Amino acid sequence: MYNPFSLIGKTILVTGASSGIGRATAVECSKMGAKLILTGRNEDRLQQTLHLLEGDDHLLFSCDLAQEDDIKVFCAQLPNNIDGIAHCAGISSLKPIIGLNTQNLQDIFCTNYYAPVLLTKYLVKSKKLQQGASLVYVGSISGISNVATALSAYGSSKSALNSFVQYAALELAGKHIRCNAVLPGRIETSLLQNQTMSEEDLQKDIAKYPLHRYGTPTEVAQAIVYLLSDATRWITGTSITIDGGRSLI
């Protein structure tokens, strides 16, 4: 039976697959029948992700996508039949404006913006993407709204990425490559756990969400699967907000 949401027969590359949204995306893609290419910085955690996947014949590459030379080497090793990419790698940082310096900005922009942009460049240039490929970028509502103190660097990096998706969608449309983004609100991941919010502040923040909770990595992953599937063949240059209604407040 025809299922436009199926990923059977598709090869999907997932960055940041060692944890959080990236890991959940890899798992959900495997459930829909995709062959996965996983990448991340920590090989041990990538192996843990690999063991969670359904099916076999998946590929795993450990590399640092914040380094352009690593991106070039990584792309050279990839097959020429990639049907989709989930750009999930990302970092966060709580730092007030008066505490920012060039290194802070470099670190966060290298991972959140330069890496997905340059990976897109080299995959297109080396013709690794199939015609009709779907590229999905994990942005954030912090890039368009939900402005908060100490998040200027993170929000700015995601704002830049949100903008890039639109430019890439227009430029790559002639190659029948689609580019879209998902914009999550706060998600229960290690990034959130590593932040220094008190329990009281955490509860106050949760109260700002009309659905009265944060999201889960799987809920974001399922939206990514939707954009990777043939059900969205006429959708490009758009963003899906996944924030439990936070942006309504």
What does this structure look like?
This protein has a single domain, classed as NAD(P)-binding Rossmann-like Domain (Rossmann fold, 3-Layer(aba) Sandwich). Helix content is 41%, strand content 17%. It has helices spanning 20-31, 43-52, 68-77, 102-125, 152-172, 190-193, 199-206, 217-228; strands at 11-15, 35-40, 59-62, 82-87, 129-138, 178-184, 239-242. It is globular and about 45 Å long.
Can you summarize this structure?
With 249 residues, the protein is α/β, with parallel strands linked by helices.
The main pleated sheet reads as: 7 strands, parallel
Give the radius of gyration: 17 Å
Kindly give the count of domains.
1
What is the terminal-to-terminal distance?
42 Å
Going by CATH, what is the homologous superfamily? NAD(P)-binding Rossmann-like Domain
Helix/strand order, N-terminal first: EHEHEHEHEHEHHHE
Helix/strand-derived category reads alpha/beta
Overall CATH architecture: 3-Layer(aba) Sandwich
| CATH C-level | Alpha Beta
Strands of the largest sheet, in order across it?
Answer: 3-2-1-4-5-6-7
Residue fraction in strands: 15-25%
Ranges with pLDDT <50 over ≥5 residues?
none
Compute the number of strand runs: 7
Annotate the secondary structure layout.
Layout: E1 11-15, H1 20-31, E2 35-40, H2 43-52, E3 59-62, H3 68-77, E4 82-87, H4 102-125, E5 129-138, H5 152-172, E6 178-184, H6 190-193, H7 199-206, H8 217-228, E7 239-242
Parallel strand pairs: 1-2, 1-4, 2-3, 4-5, 5-6, 6-7
